[in-house]
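so my prof wants the structure for this chain in the tokens format not the other one, which i didnt know existed until like an hour ago. anyway here's the sequence
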Amino acid sequence: MEIIYSNNKMFETWWSRIIQNDILQYPLYSKLEISYQKLYNENYQFEDLSFIIIENKQPIVGLIVSKHINNDNICEFTGFGRPVYYIENKKIENTLLNGARKKIKKVISGYFSECKSFKLSYTDFLNNNKLSFLGDFLLAEGAHQVPSFSQIISLNQNETLLHQGLRKRYRSFINWGKNNLKIKILNSENIAEKDIEMFRSLHIQEAGRETRSRYSWLKQFEMVKERQAFIVFGFWENDLVTAAFFSFSKKSCYYGVGASIRAMFDKPLSHIILWNTILYAKKLGCEYFEIGEILFPKINPLPPTSKELGISTFKRGFGGETNIRLNIELEITKTL
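here's what i got, hopefully its the right format
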């Protein structure tokens, strides 16, 4: 078996091949997404430790993982600020897969041995309601875990069924949007740099400050140009009043960031944006639309605020199912 690290010129080719065999094809770990994450987390110096294990010209397992020193002077292993991402080629026979898993253990343990104190964050998607190999390994090493929930809409149904899945009053909110807002979907064919500047300006205006660099917005512009994302705008009397950014792969679409005029929160601005997104993601051929994390009153370590609970209620109104995942964190402090 051969280990292909991220500095190998063939890494992206192998990563593309292993992603093609994945059920979900999660869109948040592409090369451009990682570049965006580096810009978003500009205060950290990430060391890319990602690798893929191949055998007989077939990718078997892959790991997106980075290391940086956090503000507490601890080695932190993440996926460039997001959780580490682990993927297996399910078409590979078990003998090869088990051999690759042993190598994964050895490489990760080597990363750990280089740090006096470290923390690793990983989200297990629990495919087929089972722990992944990496999740099992980390828990056996003493990691703690907390369940998380995400609202996911299956796009493998017609528009009528998708519409029936909406909360009843959302249907009238969407009709309001159709009658009062002009919707524009920006993709690789029609986006211009001035569009991302409009989005950025709206976000700064409503956040009350600039939360991230202009370069990160330009990276999202590049993602749209490279057919890895799209943006939905909503105009009220020719003024941009709501906007949202979505990443997508061949199978999945993911809600990224949005902004709306706070003074118009009494109007259902976001409903028509998300409804158009659902239909457009389906048109693109995506099978899943992930609208985002869902919080419950008493299941989280820190109780969510009423605002956060309200956002969760809002998300669930678009239908779909609430999927459970496992946030796993291994933290070790070595003593002399």
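also thought this was worth mentioning. The chain has two domains: 2-145+329-333, 157-286.
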